[in-house]
Design goal:
The chain is of the alpha/beta class and 321 residues long. Helices cover 27% and strands 26% of the residues.
Amino acid sequence: MIEFPTLTADAARSAHLVPLPYTLPDHMDAEQWTRGTFSHRGRTIAYWLYLPKRTEDAPECPLVVMLHGCGQDAGDFAAGTQMHVHSGGAGVAVLYPEQAQWDNAYRCWNWYKPQHQARDGGEPALLAALALSVAGEHRVDRSRMFVAGLSAGGAMADILGCGYPDIFAAVGVHSGLRAGAASDAMSALSVMRSGSPGAGGTAGRGCAVPTIVFHGDGDTTVHPGNGCAVVDAAVKAHESETLQALFPQATAGVSVRGRRFTRTVYQDGMGRCGAELWELHGAGHAWSGGDGQGSFTDTDGVDASAEMLRFFLAHPMPAVA
């Protein structure tokens, strides 16, 4: 059986989901969306939640947590990534948390601040508690909970994967940075500009979590070397935990609309995948294959949402004897 964390009694008393009246954007079906807020340990966060259509006796569904980038909100990110469109057909719920402007003037997740980089503190604790609360409310399969994000959201997704491997079975990082890549605003700007100095080993990783990464080699906002650093850290964690070397297998391809890419899959001798890297040739700082309704999207690219969902569903939480 898998042993999952639960909210403590004190945390449960201070944590609650509150639906909010809100005008739905045009791309959202009112029957399947909930707008609400969640409070935990004195912090409050807003969110959009998409639930697939299912019967009362349907099995528990997987959940993907999607973390937007700077300058975005949850509705914008949903419109641009269309993760819920892909997920709906697969019976997967999608949670879009939303950073408050009073917590960051640019709506960035505070991935570069030490108080938001570890388990049981700051934004990681809030987001993990939100995911658990939604899972409890909506019959979510706790062995198939995943987290993905863009840019600052990608960096926070990696932090959540490192800090909560008992909650998130796999991680997706698009145009983001590895956990622990910076410790303040100045070092954040430096690593964004020049790339991560070294892979950082397995620091901060409770255990190996399968990780899929997308990064444009023309990205001038977050240096492409950061995507490689995320993959390198995930590979090292897998090799350290399993004592099995991962071997890269690269293939080249072209999206339907002509964007070239190189996909590298890192597998061990038993066929287990520890990481997957998509290098998007000529692409900038934008969600690959995204919809033009949202900001920071590359409509010409391979569909990152579809590929992330495929990767996630292939990597449920391993059973613990």
